[in-house]
Write a structure and sequence with these properties.
The chain is mostly helical. The chain is built from 15 helices and no strands. α1 packs across α11, α2 runs antiparallel to α8 and α11 packs antiparallel against α12. The longest helix is centred in the N-terminal third of the chain and has 36 residues. The protein is globular and about 55 Å long.
Length: 344
């Protein structure tokens, strides 16, 4: 007779899976955050050159993710044929490229902590696009939470710490450009996740299938953009002259790809709200690490804004945790649209 009841084995198995998810997401995305700030804001070489070709980063990230997802599809013996019309993958891809480009470009004008906290306001465009595209309806607490997060983000952006200057613009101009790019990021990001939700519900589509075709389209489009802008050879020349930049970009693409699959695994196993809690923690850790690593001073107003934002997000996760455990798997998977655009 087995001394260990089935419930104990299940709990131990869930603990191992949970540890795997938390460690995987936290490690890959924290490294990703540090690397993207280093690449876009720290000069390379004795001449102190800045890497300016953000679309090249998009191309490298998507190329790596596309190749890995193709391997997953082939090894799992799943069909490589597209499930939805190619143009629908293309719509997600275009929106995703614009999202990621705005994200990288914004780092030229605002610090990583400002950008990371501003991302917390993505629920606002998601609610807007959800209402327009999916005809979703939201309750009063959802709007109140969005208002609190917006307030916290506004405090963090409008009251920067002393000596927080951009290497590309100075003072007020830096803030205006940075905020404009972050608004673009939030708008495109909200559309991407909402349209992915629509694809998942409209077609019998697996995660790897969507990742493969979306990133494949992104590779083609970003490569085309680099060629038309004349930046492809310039970017290659830069990384050939600065080997440390080459290794930074290679590692960035690797952890970006790995994080996509950790995120997908987490949402499939534990649901979207557990994932949201992990992501909130990751954002907090990333901000603290960036402040220490890159010497970003925080003003009192920024500290208050961060408390408001993270307090609101944690409250949302814990207040809704009990209903989340009662939801059937099919319902939870409907919410699992964040990972495929995600990172960015």
């Amino acid at each position: 007779m087995d001394d260990n009841p089935p419930s104990v084995d299940v709990k131990e198995n869930k603990l191992l899976k949970g540890t795997f998810s938390v460690v995987g997401i936290m490690s890959t995305l924290v490294i990703y955050g540090v690397l993207q700030e280093k690449i876009m804001r720290v000069p390379y070489g004795p001449t102190h050159e800045f890497f300016k070709h953000s679309l090249f980063l998009v191309f490298c990230n998507r190329l790596t993710t596309s190749a890995v997802s193709a391997v997953f599809l082939l090894t799992s013996k799943k069909a490589l044929d597209p499930v939805a019309p190619i143009y629908k993958y293309g719509v997600v891809s275009i929106s995703n490229i614009l999202t990621t480009t705005c994200q990288y470009e914004a780092l030229k004008y605002v610090s990583f902590p400002v950008q990371t906290l501003a991302k917390c306001a993505k629920m606002i465009p998601v609610m807007i696009w959800g209402t327009l595209i999916m005809q979703k309806k939201y309750k009063g607490p959802d709007y109140f939470l969005a208002l609190l997060v917006t307030l916290g983000c506004s405090l963090f952006i409008l009251f920067p710490g002393a000596s927080e200057l951009s290497p590309y613009r100075k003072e007020r101009e830096s803030t205006v450009w940075g905020v404009s790019l972050m608004i673009g990021y939030l708008g495109f990001d909200g559309f991407t996740s909402t349209f992915q939700d629509k694809l998942f519900k409209g077609y019998d589509m697996g995660i790897y299938n969507q990742i493969f075709y979306t990133t494949l389209c992104s590779c083609i489009l970003s490569l085309t953009g680099l060629i038309l802008q004349g930046n492809l050879l310039m970017a290659i020349d830069f990384v050939s002259r600065h080997k440390d930049c080459f290794f930074d970009i290679a590692l960035l693409s690797t952890v970006a790809t790995a994080s996509q699959f950790f995120i997908s695994y987490t949402i499939r196993t534990f649901g979207a709200l557990t994932f949201a809690t992990i992501m909130t923690t990751r954002q907090l850790v990333s901000i603290l690490l960036s402040c220490v690593w890159f010497s970003h001073p925080l003003s009192v107003e920024q500290f208050i804004g961060a408390v408001i934002v993270f307090g609101s997000l944690y409250a949302k996760s814990f207040l809704r945790r009990k209903p989340d455990t009662a939801l059937p798997t099919s319902h939870k998977s409907d919410e699992a649209t964040v990972p495929l655009k995600a990172i960015a």
